[in-house]
């Protein structure tokens, strides 16, 4: 691990730079011969664009896949998961089996969602089946809770539509939104709503290689949950984003409104039992793997790339997990001391997993880290290793028969 590597960073985050410096790496500029680039999504877009003409060498690694937006844009994520389910259904795959009510038995992990304005008529049809339901509107191209609002009346959506025409000129091009059925029965702790932020590392999409960071956390609202109409516009009740919650008077700067996943597991085991808790976390693993399988066919699986995604998951009161969104650039800013330590470990462990044993980037490496390199990551799926194990199993069975 003491090899001197040329690195480039285009964001001023101490948890990233600290990890590079600890390894004795040398900082260089983007136009120099870098080997390891921790870049923003915009930098990657520019680098991978046809116009740039940039070709990476075998000794270079970068931290985003070129079309990560297939998973990390709210609309394309939904489109890809819906297509994945339809394709499995068409193939007669038992994974796509449905209940008598028409819901997927094994792949029902995103709330009912439509893309506006394109799916407006389909949304209205669904809304009228249950006019008392609440829906949440999110702009596809924004993050940190920006532009999100709840509706429980069609008139509110029509009002938004009328007003947006005056905003998105000159060609009346409207920003794309997703509108999803609001999870109005969230699991609460201390009467407050929370979601989970999990870090998922993908080192290859074909074959799929996925790792889950064990040190995820829960993000809490600062105001007790209230699903009444009078609190519908109170973002401190409904949105867990730290960027929003820290603006409230109830925000706690010591713990930052966060709780570790380990403590969540303890709470669940005490309140619901270990079996129920284990089942929930198995379903979360399932959700992660199948969301990635949904986008794998359309992802550009470049061997120079890896990516750490921030998965946002809400658990409802029946202990069912729901995938809300996936972030390509989960925040590396630290709100507390423990937050800083966690994110420093995250970056360190990512680097250990994506780099060969000698610590020098090399795309010819088979991307199979040793157990001692995983740190706080656990392997969720390696399709290549799974295929090898299956082949070995079949060979053993054949040998027994002969």
Strand content: 15-25%
- Helix-and-strand structural type: alpha+beta
Shape: globular
Instruction: Please report the distance between the alpha carbons of the first and last residues.
Output: 48 Å
Which bin fits the share of residues in helices?
25-40%
Q: What does the model show?
A:
The protein is α+β, with helices and mostly antiparallel strands and 402 residues long. It has helices spanning 14-22, 41-48, 69-72, 74-90, 120-129, 154-167, 235-238, 242-245, 261-271, 274-295, 337-354, 383-401; strands at 6-9, 26-27, 36-38, 61-62, 113-116, 135-139, 149-151, 177-181, 188-189, 192-205, 208-213, 217-220, 258-260, 307-315, 321-327, 377-382. Strands 9, 10, 11, 12, 13, 14, 15 and 16 form an eight-stranded antiparallel sheet that branches.
Describe the secondary-structure layout.
Layout: E1 6-9, H1 14-22, E2 26-27, E3 36-38, H2 41-48, E4 61-62, H3 69-72, H4 74-90, E5 113-116, H5 120-129, E6 135-139, E7 149-151, H6 154-167, E8 177-181, E9 188-189, E10 192-205, E11 208-213, E12 217-220, H7 235-238, H8 242-245, E13 258-260, H9 261-271, H10 274-295, E14 307-315, E15 321-327, H11 337-354, E16 377-382, H12 383-401
Helix pairs in contact: 1-11, 4-10, 9-10
Provide tags for this entry.
402 residues; alpha+beta; eight-stranded antiparallel sheet; four-stranded parallel sheet; 12 helices; 35% helix
């Amino acid at each position: 691990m003491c090899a001197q590597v040329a690195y480039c960073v285009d964001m001023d985050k101490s948890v990233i730079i600290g990890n590079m410096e600890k390894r004795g790496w040398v900082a260089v500029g983007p136009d120099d011969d870098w080997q390891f680039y921790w870049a923003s999504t915009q930098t990657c877009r520019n680098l991978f664009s046809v116009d740039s003409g940039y070709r990476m060498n075998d000794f270079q690694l970068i931290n985003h896949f070129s079309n990560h937006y297939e998973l990390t844009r709210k609309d394309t994520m939904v489109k890809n998961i819906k297509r994945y389910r339809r394709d499995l259904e068409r193939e007669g795959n038992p994974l796509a089996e449905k209940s008598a009510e028409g819901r997927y038995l094994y792949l029902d992990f995103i709330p009912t969602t439509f893309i506006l304005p394109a799916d407006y008529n389909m949304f209205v049809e669904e809304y009228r089946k249950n006019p008392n339901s609440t829906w949440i509107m999110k702009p596809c191209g924004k993050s940190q809770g920006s532009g999100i609002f709840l509706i429980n009346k069609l008139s509110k959506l029509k009002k938004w539509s009328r007003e947006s025409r005056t905003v998105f000129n000159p060609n009346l091009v409207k920003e794309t939104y997703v509108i999803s059925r609001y999870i109005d029965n969230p699991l609460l702790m201390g009467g407050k709503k929370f979601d989970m932020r999990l870090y998922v590392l993908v080192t290859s999409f074909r074959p799929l290689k996925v790792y889950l960071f064990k040190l995820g956390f829960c993000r809490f609202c600062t105001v007790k949950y209230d699903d009444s109409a009078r609190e519908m516009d109170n973002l401190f009740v409904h949105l867990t984003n730290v960027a929003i919650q820290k603006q409230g008077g109830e925000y706690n700067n010591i713990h930052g409104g966060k709780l570790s996943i380990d403590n969540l597991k303890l709470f669940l085991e005490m309140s619901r039992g270990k079996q129920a808790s284990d089942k929930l976390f198995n379903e979360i693993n399932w959700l992660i793997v199948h969301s990635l399988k949904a986008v794998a066919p359309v992802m550009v699986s470049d061997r120079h790339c890896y990516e750490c995604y921030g998965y946002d998951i809400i658990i409802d009161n029946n202990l069912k997990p729901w995938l809300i969104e996936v972030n390509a650039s989960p925040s590396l800013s630290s709100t507390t001391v423990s937050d800083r330590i966690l994110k420093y470990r995250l970056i360190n462990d990512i680097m250990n997993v994506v780099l060969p044993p000698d610590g020098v980037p090399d795309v010819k490496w088979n991307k199979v880290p040793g157990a001692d390199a995983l740190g706080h990551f656990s392997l969720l799926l390696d399709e290549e290793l799974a295929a090898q194990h299956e082949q070995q199993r079949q060979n053993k069975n054949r040998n027994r028969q002969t």
